């Protein structure tokens, strides 16, 4: 009899624990690294409003994050730095298409030494080393390559290009003077301590820099993730994104 009671108590404990876990709620967020500061602040704001919810962020290159989702990583919400990776996952049936939207947009800039006076991408031929994100690992590199190819500069500059793993690394290279300049997102360039923004690249030279977001198929079944997605598209999150230099449509 004691054994039966013990088993019943264990079962009851597990049921109560499961209910508490559901009530507590977790949102497993995978977002492009360039969004890290803004998303941390937005997550903190949301957790203040909804203390029973915990946002668990994972930041990195969009391609790497997409491959993690592709391989079955537990993710509720994905925010990419370009449309291609979102479309790639959607084509595999991994994203809840009805939840897809655009969080924000950005600009591509040249950031570099304060003594430089570059006024166009053509001036890059005079520099010794220029950092860009590896186009195979991050969208920022794709945008940079598109802009350079549009002006017929990519092949000429190829020997001078230093490939960074992500935007933050490219900014660090420029900040430390390891390269003369770097082609990065404006939001990341604003975080530089020593380097300065030298030039904004014309958006006509590359694809639109947009940050699509969507719930994964599993995330669509998580009420906490659905609610957090709505918060990301609201006025409080918009204010934070604009503070960090992102462009948000009205």
From TrEMBL:
Assigned keywords, A-Z? Metal-binding, Signal
By its UniProt entry, which NCBIfam families does this protein fall under? modA
**Similarity comment: family membership:** Belongs to the bacterial solute-binding protein ModA family.
> What is the protein name given in its UniProt record?
Molybdate ABC transporter substrate-binding protein
InterPro entries the record matches: ModA, ModA/WtpA
One Pfam match: SBP_bac_11
Q: Which gene encodes it?
A: modA
């Amino acid at each position: 009899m004691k054994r039966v009671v013990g088993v019943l108590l264990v079962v009851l404990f597990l049921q109560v624990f499961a209910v508490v876990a559901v009530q507590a709620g977790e949102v497993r967020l995978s977002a492009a690294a360039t969004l890290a500061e803004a998303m941390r602040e937005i997550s903190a704001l949301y957790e203040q409003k909804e203390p029973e919810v915990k946002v668990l962020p994972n930041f990195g290159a969009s391609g790497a994050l997409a491959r993690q989702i592709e391989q079955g990583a537990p993710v509720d919400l994905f925010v990419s730095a370009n449309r291609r990776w979102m479309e790639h996952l959607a084509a595999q049936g991994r994203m809840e298409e009805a939840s897809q939207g655009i969080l924000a947009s950005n600009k591509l800039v040249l950031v570099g030494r304060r003594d430089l006076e570059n006024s166009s991408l053509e001036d890059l031929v005079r520099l010794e080393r220029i950092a860009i994100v590896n186009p195979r690992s991050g969208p920022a590199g794709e945008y940079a390559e598109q802009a350079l190819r549009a002006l017929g500069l990519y092949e000429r500059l190829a020997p001078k290009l230093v490939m960074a793993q992500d935007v933050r690394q490219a900014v660090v290279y420029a900040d430390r003077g390891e390269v003369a300049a770097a082609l990065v997102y404006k939001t990341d360039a604003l975080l530089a301590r020593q380097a300065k923004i030298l030039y904004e690249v014309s958006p006509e030279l590359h694809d639109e820099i947009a940050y699509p977001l969507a719930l994964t198929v599993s995330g669509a079944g998580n009420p906490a993730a659905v609610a957090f997605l709505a918060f990301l598209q609201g006025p409080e999150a918009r204010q934070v994104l604009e503070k960090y230099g992102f462009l948000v449509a009205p």
